[in-house]
Design a protein that fits this description.
Layout (H helix, E strand, L loop, with lengths): L1 E8 L5 E4 L1 H11 L4 E6 L5 E7 L3 H14 L13 H10 L2 E7 L2 E2 L5 E7 L5 E10 L3
Antiparallel strand pairs: 1-8, 2-7, 3-5, 3-8, 4-7, 5-6
């Protein structure tokens, strides 16, 4: 297994940043042709998801719906004032897994990998690990 880290800088409180190209680049850079890629975000106020990337309106809709479901201001007890970001991260999740075959991520035609920022702007770390297929 190998792992690496990329950094993603976000420019607003909430954002969905397509990181597919960066993740694919790390897979190709390592030269592993078969296995399982794990993308993990080690933050409590940012997550990662796979969704449609052909139409940017899809992720806009996802982020708008999350903002509606979990408003920034609410009856939260967390003193730091960013409870909404923590809740959204719990809903979206902190990792995704993608099969790798012939050195390529096996995403569907329209699928892309998105870092979901919920408490930005910030610079986020994204961990990428590849577990090679056993012979």
């Amino acid at each position: 297994m190998w792992s690496d880290t990329i950094q993603v800088t976000t420019s607003s409180r909430s954002a969905a940043v397509d990181i597919t190209r960066a993740v694919s680049g790390k897979i190709q850079e390592k030269g592993v042709s078969e296995g399982l890629c794990v993308v993990y975000v080690p933050h409590t106020t940012a997550g990662v998801t796979i969704n449609e990337g052909a139409d940017p309106a899809v992720m806009d809709d996802v982020m708008t719906t999350l903002d509606s479901m979990v408003p920034w201001r609410g009856p939260y007890k967390h003193m730091e004032g960013n409870s909404a970001a923590h809740i959204k991260t719990s809903l979206v999740g902190s990792s995704v897994q993608i099969l790798v075959e012939k050195g390529r991520l096996q995403l569907g035609t329209w699928q892309r990998i998105f870092l979901c920022e919920f408490d930005g702007p910030r610079t986020r770390k994204v961990r990428i690990a590849l577990i090679p297929a056993s012979a």
